[in-house]
Amino acid sequence: MSEQDNRQAEPTTPDASRRRFLSNASALAVAVGLTGGERAAAAPRTVGANDVINYGVIGYGGRCRYVNEAMLAHADARCVAIADVQQSRRARGKAIVDEHYQDGRCELHRDFRELLDRSDIDAVVIATGDRWHAPASMLAAEAGKDIYSEKPCGIAFNEYQNLADTVIKHKRVFQAGTQRRSVPSFQIAADMALSGKLGTLRTLHASIYQPALTNTWLPPQPQPADEKVDWNLWLGPSPWRPFHANYVKGRWRNHWDFHSSAGILEWGAHTVDLCQWAADADDTTPVEFEPTDKNIICRYANGLVLSMDYLSDPFKNREPQFRTRMGTCPVRFEGDLGSVETGDEGEILASTDALKAAIPADFKKRSRVRGLDVTEHTRNFLDCIRTREKTAANETVMRHSHIAAHAAALSWILGRKLTLDPATETFVDDEEANRMRFRTERAWQ
User: Fold this and answer.
1) Torsion-angle region of residue 431: left (phi > 0), alpha (psi -120 to 50) or beta?
2) Does 355 score more than 90 pLDDT?
3) Which listed residue, 41, 260, 361, 413, has the most CB atoms within 10 A of its CB?
C-alpha cells in the first residue's frame, strides 16, 4: 500500500530470496472461489445529483489516512463508518473523521461485513493489507457498494479475474488506487505516446522495486483479545500463522502469504499500469516475460518492449535509464521521434524541442509535500458513482495491468522466460507457472 513502508522491508538478495521461495513452492495449490458464495444485499441506493455520497472505510492504516484526507475534502461525500480489526486504528480513524466534521457521528465496526450490511452506505474505501483487497472488494460488490480499492487490488491471477468479473456482474463502480492516472504530469506523458507525438513506440520503461521474497516467519507471541486485535479476521483468506505484533504494525510485506508476488506489484501496479495506458494496451498484456539481472524484459504481440527496471533506491532515483531525479514511480516512453519521462516529483522531461513545445503552457510542476495528491482520483470516483461511467482505473484496466506485473514477477521467481496467452490469461506449455497463478483460501469465516 504505502510506498514509504517498503523501506522497512526485510533485506534480502534476489538470488537467495528466489531460492528460499522455490524450496517451498510445492505448498502452492490451485485456489477455489474466493468469497465462498454471495451475500444477500440490500438494493443499492440511486445517488441523485444533489445527494451526499455516504461511504465507509475498511482498514484505517497509514495509506488510508492519506486517501481518506482526499475523500474528506469533497463536500459531496461523507465518511459515516470505519471498520478495522485493530481497536487502536478504529479509534484513530474516528478521531480524525469526527474532528473533520466537528461531530461524533462516525460509527465503528470490528468486522467489515457489518459495514457492508448497512443500507445507508453507498461506497467503500478499502485500504487493508494486500491479502484482503480482492476478497473485501468482491464482498462489497455483492453487497451493492461502489468500491475504491487500494493497490495491488489482489495477490493472484484468480483474484484480479474474479474481482473484475464480480464488479461487472453487479454493475458496480470500481476505482483502483493507481492514482497516477489522475495526475497531470503522467497524463501529459501518456497523451504524447497515445497521440503519436513520440512516433512509433519502441520501448516503455516502468520502474519497479527490487524484487524480494521471504519465508522467514516471526516467532509466536501471545494472541491478544479479539476486541484489541481480531487476528483471525486480520489473516482472513491467508493461511493460519501464529500472531506477532509486527505483522499488524505493517511489517507483513515480502511474506508470500500476505503480499503481492515478490513485491513487484507494489510499484508495478502504478508504473506498469502507466505503460499499459501509454501503449493503448488496457485490454491486453505482454506475451513474453524474461528476467535479467537489471530488469524484466516484456514484449507485446506487436513487438513493443516493456522494460520493468529494478531501482537501486526508489526514493533517490538516479538510474541510468532516467536522466534526472524523478522521484518514485518514474516512467519513460520512447518512440522513433523522441522520448518523454516523468515521475512523482512532477517534472516532465522531453527529448526534443517539438516534444517540449507539446507540454501545455499552463502545466506547473507539482510540489510534493506529503505524498502524491489523490484528490483528482477520488473526485473521478465520486463523479462516476453519480454518472455510472467507468473510472480512470476501472476493473478492466486493473485486471490487465495487474496480470502483466504478476506474470513478470513469476518469471523472476522462476528465473526463466515465460510466454503468456493474453486471451486465456494462461502460460504456454508451463504447468508450474500456471499453478503459481493461483492461491488457496483459508476458511476464515
Assistant:
1) alpha
2) yes
3) 260
